[in-house]
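Format notes (please read before filing issues)

Several people have asked whether sequences and structure tokens are stored in separate files. They are not. Every record keeps both together, in the order shown below: the sequence lines, then the token lines. Line labels are part of the format and must not be stripped during preprocessing.
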Amino acid sequence: MLAKVENGVVAKWPCTVSDIKKENPRTSFPSPFPDALLGDLGYVRFEYRDRGDFDSEFQEAVEVTPTIVGGVAVQTWEIRERYSSAEKSKILSDKAAQALIDADISNRKLRDDFLSETDWTQVADAPVDATRWASYRQLLRDLPNHANWPNLDEADWPTKPD
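Then the structure lines:
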């Protein structure tokens, strides 16, 4: 790939030998095209570069005019913030709040499933220790009052009786 240079600044990129031939329709060029002619025609080699690491949620990589390094036009990227710091803080705050809501919904569903799965233990003729199972079920019902709710660790959940 090539880049067109005008007044010492990259003016067009990327370019190909076809661009040179279009600009010089009455000129015959050898094949393969020799690098020695590039400078005379206002072109330099062009090198693609990776954008590098950036947070695509809050930043964007914008291609800017390539810089010439050692006679080669090097693709250049500028990392720009998508949001002001106040907007970013609001987005992060909203995400944290949504994560709590999602954890609450998920844990309530799991707790309700555990309660449903153990309904049978509360019938009069169930072959289990009804008191232990009733205590377990009450602990499940009390989970939303737990200090860690809704961010429960495995140890925060009551242990199912044997």
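For reference, the curators noted about this record: The radius of gyration is 34 Å. Residues 58 and 84 are 9 Å apart (CA to CA).
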